[in-house]
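Data availability excerpt. The first of two example chains:
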Amino acid sequence: MLARFRRKLCPNDYAGKGKHQPEDRDCRPGGGARDDAAIEWYRRILDADGSQRNALAGLGVLALRLGDYDLAIEVRAKLLSHEPANAHPYAVIAIAYCAKGDYDRAKENAAKARDIDPCIRLADELDRMLGGRAD
């Protein structure tokens, strides 16, 4: 299930390569010097100013892609304190809770994302994948 989301969050998609390359070290969970450098860069920015929304958003997505679900939830929750009407942080939090096996919280956050933006695809896709699952 998370492989689909990881493919969507693959750095190759943003680097203009156009498609997920599983053999690329930076596309695998936990892999790559670029990931380490990006985490360090985000942390330095947030140490200087913890309200930097782009850094919070970027670190949250990177943490999710690397499998650090607690960090993804933590930084996306901080982002929500600055942007409470943004649906995307709720969707990322929902994905992280789903990955942790906390399906009730995943559904709750997916519903919050959908309440803010009825067209958000991540929440809809997550909801379909969860189906009738519950803790």
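And the second chain:
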Amino acid sequence: MITGTQIRMARAALKLGVRELATHACMSPATISRIESGAPANASTLQALELTLKNLGVYCNIDDTGDIAVYLSYSSMENGEKWIVSNIIEKRRKQKKDENNAIRERIKSRHDENKEKIIVQDK
């Protein structure tokens, strides 16, 4: 079930005010404000908010350790944000490729060292 903190985080990611989210969710802004401040809410209200946010491109999750997360889908981002995210992804791919190449080099180096030891022992 979605939390008030996640709703606030989702609104921030979407750059929506309380009134705008309330309009999308067909509920009062006061209801959203109360939930965000930690007041209890009906399960059906929370489900409606979660579905509304999902339709707007935001996915909320709580993992097994209790950490909460809010994910903004790529399609919901503005062009500037997409450019930033694309650059970050490209940097991570390059970093991963460099790490993999370094691991391959270490493995090859160890393999070559072992080959030399075998050759020396054979003589």
